[in-house]
């Protein structure tokens, strides 16, 4: 393909994919399957890699990320992002209304009401219709430039199409993690033995500051916009309509109100309805609609006089704590749950609430029979926030956290630095066994979608499946013993199990359930070590594991413990015998030169311009060899920030050359260093 042909094809694919993105995210009317969409995107990625000079500024390939940002530049806002005055009182709103009326000299006015979303504020700048910068609120005057990460949010347009588009304008919005995405993220963290995130807002904030934009893309952030600046609309409502017309994601929950009574009715309406929205909300923002009237009202030192935020009080109820039960997860983590006298809260009847861990029980100083305060926030189940000490009976005694597993009776352990207690009976505790099988068959692992939680329970109780490897020994007559299984459904399940043998090694490694090894770490381990045998051999030496990308001491020690267990090694052998993929098929990068031929490199630390994995690829592409530890045979230790002191000391004692990334770039140019 010629450069001219490539330019035309790239432009055509860019427009086509952006059109399908709009259908999917803005209009909820997709016409392509995920597979068809991915194929188009793969074609564009390949063409842009071959002809990077022809990549369009609104290329949808930016949505998948991949840019590494070591330091986020602090930049000044063109228009300061001021905070709003807050109130929890209807009387305060009426006083605000009186001040507005007085400030407008009795002239008629109306309000624009919109929900106050519990996310992270962002400023989006567009020039000539192209998205050029995304900045966090910061202190309101300056914020962090997170443009690369903002581009991965699929509902943020990269190019605006429409009428009357200003040469330069700014859009304010709220980035958030949808409830469903947050719950799934926490489920995945719990699944690999990590502490769950506390709330969606903090998780969103942390996600926007991740250094690798491809990791941001995986978090599936969303954004509602609510303010247009740099465009001469006469009303705020007109500006919002422009944003809708230009393809921005505007929540359809706003309303114009002609009086403060209508505003209060809107607030009452959404106090319960907001629970059905895909994100958390904590109030309502009320703005004078007319822009000239906003200018007339002006600002105080900290906030506009033409707007105010009404905050909903967190709904809290007091109810009796009847008991505490304990749940056991796949990793053996034991989680306490409060059993409550049923109480109606935020639209539902609450009977159970999260207590998180033993530390939280101690902090609350709980006793069975206490009256406790319960709130229903963004969590899957409500949480206990405090004790109504005034109602405590003197005979109640402090709650003692269980010392034994509630299922198998094994004495619990608590590792140093861990908040949770664990049941160590890995191979004999039913919920742990079933949990490992459920983890093994999930979509991101072996993807056996015809096998569900209830079927796994039946298979376990009938002693047909006690480990993931047992799935591959199942026969038709075994499945016909299950409730609800007929010949067709049994054959479908056997077919799904058979198809899973083609799942790549990266997914198999995630599926076998090594603690702390999530999907991303599993992919990097598989590509680095190539085979399960190489990974097992590497586990004999922690320093070899620590040389792999994304692997710290906690992960390395967990991998080592896994392969030291004879039962785990037998399970891997059985999976191998069943025909699963235990070797990575990821191709080595194509050679670009031999400038590093016959030279060995160990890459360690954090770098300004590269990720370690990028450096590994560059070494191989240019004829070099990668090694996993310091020895006399090592030619270069490529050292970044935060490299372990033991590596440096050993290299210095052996006379190994320690180089920086600048030195490395000089080697690539064929220069001596």
Explain what you see:
The structure is a single chain. By secondary structure, the chain is an alpha+beta fold. It has six domains: 3-64, Helix Hairpins, CATH 1.10.287.610; 76-311, D-amino Acid Aminotransferase, Chain A, domain 1, CATH 3.30.470; 316-391, Beta Barrel (OB fold (Dihydrolipoamide Acetyltransferase, E2P)), CATH 2.40.50.140; 430-502, DNA polymerase, domain 1 (Orthogonal Bundle), CATH 1.10.150; 505-578, 5' to 3' exonuclease, C-terminal subdomain (DNA polymerase, domain 1, Orthogonal Bundle), CATH 1.10.150; 600-668, 3-Layer(aba) Sandwich (Rossmann fold). The protein contains 24 helices and 21 strands. Strands 12, 13, 14, 15, 16 and 17 form a six-stranded antiparallel sheet that branches. A five-stranded mixed sheet has the order 2-11-10-3-9. Helix 1 (3-25) runs antiparallel to helix 2 (34-50), helix 12 (430-441) packs across helix 13 (453-461) and helix 16 (505-511) packs across helix 17. The longest helix has 23 residues, at 3-25. The radius of gyration is 29 Å and the shape is globular. It starts with a helix and ends in a 5-residue tail after the last helix. The mean pLDDT is 89. NAD(+) binds at residues 34-38, 83-84, 114, 137, 174, 287, 311. The active site is at 116 (n6-amp-lysine intermediate). It comes from Dawidia soli.
Summary tags:
673 residues, Helix Hairpins, D-amino Acid Aminotransferase, Chain A, domain 1, OB fold (Dihydrolipoamide Acetyltransferase, E2P), 6-stranded antiparallel beta sheet, 5-stranded mixed beta sheet, 24 helices, 21 strands, 36% helix, globular, DNA replication
């Amino acid at each position: 393909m010629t450069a001219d042909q490539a330019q035309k094809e790239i432009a055509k694919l860019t427009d086509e994919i952006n059109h399908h993105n709009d259908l999917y995210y803005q209009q909820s009317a997709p016409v392509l399957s995920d597979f068809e969409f991915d194929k188009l995107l793969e074609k564009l990625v390949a063409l842009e890699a071959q002809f990077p000079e022809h990549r369009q500024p609104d290329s949808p390939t930016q949505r998948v990320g991949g840019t590494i940002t070591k330091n986020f530049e602090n930049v000044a806002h063109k228009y300061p992002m001021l905070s709003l005055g807050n109130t929890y009182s209807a009387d305060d709103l009426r006083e605000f209304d009186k001040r507005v009326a007085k400030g407008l000299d009795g002239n008629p006015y109306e309000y624009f009401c919109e929900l106050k979303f519990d996310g992270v504020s962002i400023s989006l700048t567009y020039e000539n219709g192209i998205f050029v910068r995304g900045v966090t609120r910061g202190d309101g005057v300056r914020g962090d430039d997170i443009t690369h990460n903002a581009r991965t949010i699929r509902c943020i347009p990269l190019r605006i199409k429409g009428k009357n588009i200003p040469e330069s304008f700014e859009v304010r919005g709220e980035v958030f993690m949808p409830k469903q995405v947050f719950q799934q993220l926490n489920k995945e963290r719990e699944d690999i033995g990590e502490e769950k995130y506390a709330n969606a807002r903090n998780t969103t904030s942390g996600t926007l500051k991740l250094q690798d934009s491809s990791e941001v893309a995986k978090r599936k952030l969303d954004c509602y916009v609510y303010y247009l600046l740099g465009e001469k609309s006469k009303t705020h409502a007109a500006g919002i309509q422009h944003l809708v017309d230009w393809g921005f994601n505007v929540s359809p929950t706003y309303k114009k109100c002609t009086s403060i009574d209508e505003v209060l009715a809107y607030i009452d309406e959404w106090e319960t309805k907001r629970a059905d929205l895909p994100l958390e909300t904590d109030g309502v923002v009320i703005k004078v609609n007319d822009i000239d009237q906003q200018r007339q009202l002006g600002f105080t030192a900290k906030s506009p006089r033409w707007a105010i935020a009404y905050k909903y009080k967190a709904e809290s109820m007091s109810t009796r704590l009847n008991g505490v039960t304990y749940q056991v997860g796949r990793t053996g983590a034991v989680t306490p749950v409060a059993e409550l006298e049923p109480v109606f809260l935020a639209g539902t009847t609450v009977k159970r609430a999260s207590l998180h861990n033993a530390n939280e029980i101690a902090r609350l100083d709980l006793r069975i029979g206490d009256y406790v305060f319960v709130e229903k926030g963004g969590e899957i189940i409500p949480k206990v926030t405090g004790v109504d000490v005034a109602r405590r009976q003197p005979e109640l005694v402090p709650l003692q956290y269980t010392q034994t597993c509630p299922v198998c009776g094994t004495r619990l352990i608590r590792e140093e630095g861990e908040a949770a207690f664990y049941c160590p009976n890995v191979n004999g505790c039913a919920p742990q066994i079933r949990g490992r099988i459920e983890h093994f068959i999930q979509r991101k692992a072996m993807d056996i979608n015809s096998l569900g939680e209830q079927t796994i329970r039946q298979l376990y109780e009938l002693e047909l499946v006690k480990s993931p490897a047992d799935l591959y020994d199942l026969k038709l007559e075994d499945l016909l013993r299950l409730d609800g299984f007929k010949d067709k459904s049994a054959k479908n399940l056997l077919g799904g199990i058979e198809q899973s043998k083609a799942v790549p090694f990266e997914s198999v490694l995630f599926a076998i359930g090594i603690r702390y090894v999530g999907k991303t770490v599993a992919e990097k381990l598989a590509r680095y070590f190539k085979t399960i045998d190489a990974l097992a051999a590497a586990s004999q030496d922690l320093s070899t594991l620590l040389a792999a990308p994304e692997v710290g001491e906690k992960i390395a020690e967990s991998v080592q413990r896994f392969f030291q267990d004879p039962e785990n090694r037998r399970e891997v052998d059985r999976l191998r015998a069943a025909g699963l993929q235990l070797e990575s098929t990821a191709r080595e990068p194509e050679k670009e030169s031999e400038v590093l031929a016959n030279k060995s490199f160990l890459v360690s630390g954090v770098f300004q311009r590269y990720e370690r994995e990028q450096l590994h690829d560059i070494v191989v592409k240019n004829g070099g060899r990668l090694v996993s530890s310091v020895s006399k045979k090592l030619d270069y230790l490529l050292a970044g920030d935060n490299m372990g002191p033991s590596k440096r000391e050993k290299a210095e004692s052996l006379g190994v050359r320690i180089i920086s990334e600048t030195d490395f770039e000089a080697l690539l140019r064929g220069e001596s260093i």
